Amino acid sequence: MTLRPSLALLLALVLPAAHAQAQAPAVQGEEGHKASTLPLKSTDTQADAAQLSARFLTRFHYDAKPLDDVMSAKIYKAYFDMLDGEKVFFTQADMARFEPLKTKFDDAIWNKDLSGPFSVFNLYVRRAIDRMNFARGLLKQGFDLTREENYTYDREHAAWPADETALDDLWRKRTKNDWLRLKLAGKSDEDIRKTLDKRYAGYIDRVKQLDGEDAFQTFMNAYAETTDPHTDYLGPRAAENFDIAMKLSLEGIGAVLQARDEYTQIREVVPGGPADKSGKIHVGDRIVALGQGTDGPMVDVIGWRLDDVVDKIRGKKDTTVRLEILPADVGLDGKHELITLVRKKVSIEEQAAKKKIIEVKDGDVTRKIGVIDLPTFYSDFGARREGDKDYKSATRDVAKLLGELKTAGVQGVVVDLRNNGGGSLAEANELTGLFIDQGPVVQVRDARGQVEVQGDDEAGLTWSGPMAVLVNRGSASASEIFAAAIQDYGRGLIIGEPTFGKGTVQNLVDLDRFAQGDSEKPQYGELKMTIAEFFRINGGSTQLKGVTPDIQFPKNGDEKDFGESTYDNALPWTQIQPAPYSQVADLTAYLPQLKTRHDGRVAKSPAWQLMLDELAQYKKMRDQTTVSLNLAERQAERKRQDAIQADFRARHKAIDGTDGSLAGEESPLDDGLNANERSLKAELKQEKQAKNAKDPELQETAHILFDAIGMIKANPKLAAEVLPYGGKFSTAAVTPPEKPATQPR
User: Fold this and answer.
1) What's this model's pTM, rounded to 2 decimal places?
2) Checking DSSP bridges between strand 232-234 and strand 526-535, what pairing results, if any?
3) What is the largest CA-CA distance in the chain?
4) What average pLDDT is seen over the chain?
């Protein structure tokens, strides 16, 4: 399978929620949850898992490399990049001290002695705490905001600070910049001190909660990702989250959690889950204590790590968990509520395939274009193996949605794969089968050089009409398999940006299967290891090059920092013999006309021009690496940026009625706050607004299909060329009558 879901996104979507009933006192949290005991030390189990992983990676990886001094030096670099990529914690003296480890990390793994990598992690923890305490101390005296100096915040290619004095000066500038951002947002000095002191104290608390599993996970990922960019080590907790991301379900109470201040807060209640059905859990509620079963002791979880709280809330189906809640609408001294919930299997529909219909109007004609939004190629492998007829599957869900769109009378379909990072290779293969009759879809070459052709053996199509696939730089792996097959067959238009360029296949190795002993508790974790490379049916590879769209949209400029080509150890592009296949249509028959119409339309589109202007501003700001720390200069720059953003907001309001705010990014005017320091209510409102905002790329893709359908209907000869299989299957897909724009609806 090809798998690349983001674990950060996964945690945001998957973490279950909390509930309770009746009031009961909570006891102090278990020892070790509030703060770890330093120095952190590795366990025998971790040492065994490291050595076992090395045996697999050096023997069965697609591009297996020996774990020797050469590899050790690469792991060394990757490890420090993961811990201190901005070079703000360690000094040159620290690096000199650790220099002997550069050729010792291979020995650490083979000899099952992880004291070296753990010593690095322990110093990182101490340095992080020291730096935050140093920053807190600076707040008391304030800053000279009239001084002419700059701060370079992009330190990816910077040198390590020479000594403690240089490190102090760097942190003085970092802290001063935090102060200035809040100052420019209109905060008083007193409020700034309070906000930043709370922020830095929170950092310290979180750093102190880092444990041996974090240290081991970081080190092992430095090793795994040095082997190739898409090989990862997943500790027991990460492996569980990865499994949830693939099957889009878990056993819990059905809520999304996030950490805010000392509390674990309900961010979203999953419809249909136990939390939702109870009617007692609400967005913004804070979890203060947890109890297992109907009578287990209540444990105070204030200040706990989010993943520790999640671990206590998740559990086997039909078991009970009790949650003590501080309701969202009461203050910190408000009355608590105790809620009892029975865990159930909860579906994570946020990441499931969805549909909608866009009505495109041009002149006197209106056409319905269906849209399938597919965030990931998911599949519940376990349920499928066990014969569960209702197992979760991207292909099955999309097939159902296509049937609903046909019933609704759509004349074309857009499959939106933007930011779809991949998933199951089998799902990519089967999903392609919904749009072609029969034939190969992808070629897979293993480490021995043997090539297997995989394809669709079932006759018939679920959707036989005009289609487009919308992609961007975030479309990777399984998304590229699907888009490439659709393009090679001439089955549909590929529209958007060139894709990520991930052409490798990963498989999960359950290391616990090889554990010594009879423990049922997961100990060793899993290895997501590259075992093969996939190729297009035309013999080319998506590796490095990705899929080039037939009609290209403007790039956002991230290709310098994001994509397979940005990895130093990415596999090279290669090609093999084509698979035996024939194109099902020839889209070149009308592609030039579609491009011409697209170019003419977007040249006159206010929404498209606004998108281009925002992209240009984004690129300009992203390329900036240094800011002034002089208040007057920053105020002048703030005015310039305010004017630009005010213009953008006014144009958005005129076009789509929103202010253009994007969820997950800074607000149009920088308020100087981190995401978790803002109001949850305001954050959710902003996200809802972003979802409802116009999507120029999707709208234009639908309009391109609108043009294609019009050309097909007007020219039977052209229709025979561009429709699949000469239009053999497609008559019903394009015959719904045209609907004039003036017709009542």
Assistant:
1) 0.90
2) antiparallel
3) 79
4) 89
